[in-house]
Amino acid sequence: MMNKIQIADKEFELLLENDQISKKTRLIAIQLEVDYESRCPVFIGVLNGSFIFMADLLKEINISCEVGFIKVSSYSGTESSGQVKDIFGLPDNLHNRDVILVEDIVDTGLTLTHILKAVRKQKPASVAICSLLLKPAALKAPIEELEYVGFEIGNEFVVGYGLDYDGLGRNLKDIYRAKTVANP
Ligand code: IMP
Question: Which of 56, 98, 107, 164 is catalytic?
Fold first, then answer.
């Protein structure tokens, strides 16, 4: 593991080591197992960023469950455009199901608000959100479904463990933060 890395034009420094992330993931998994025992929830990962967290989390979950992924149009660079255009691949059989949306990071919360609206239309039994990271200072409005959060971080741009900077860095094992202030 390196303390500093360069991705394209930006310098990043280590924020969370893979070991810390794994420990937190195991804790969240235990919590989910207790809360959803014998309810057979549907985990829905939000691509692309959630792919590593989703895999690591689900490997720690030992209750009966279903797994799926959705994709939403994302934004590029280090700033949210707040534009979420489409949701692809949302299952249409969520009525009366216990749905758990899995995110890599909640920044403004606009992406989730949009997804939640589409999921609620199907009248599921329950909806909860599980996000590895949360930037509380960036959140535009409170999201009451946000029940499982790994780490709260500052209003800074992060990369690695599924998160990208202009498409790069998703494959890094650890999470790094931009050395310059991304969202002043
Ligand atoms: P939101 O709609 O502003 O909450 O943004 C959510 C999405 O933006 C996440 O699923 C990420 O794909 C992306 N995102 C937000 N903050 C960061 C970051 O610091 N690094 C990389 N991607 C981010």
Answer: 107
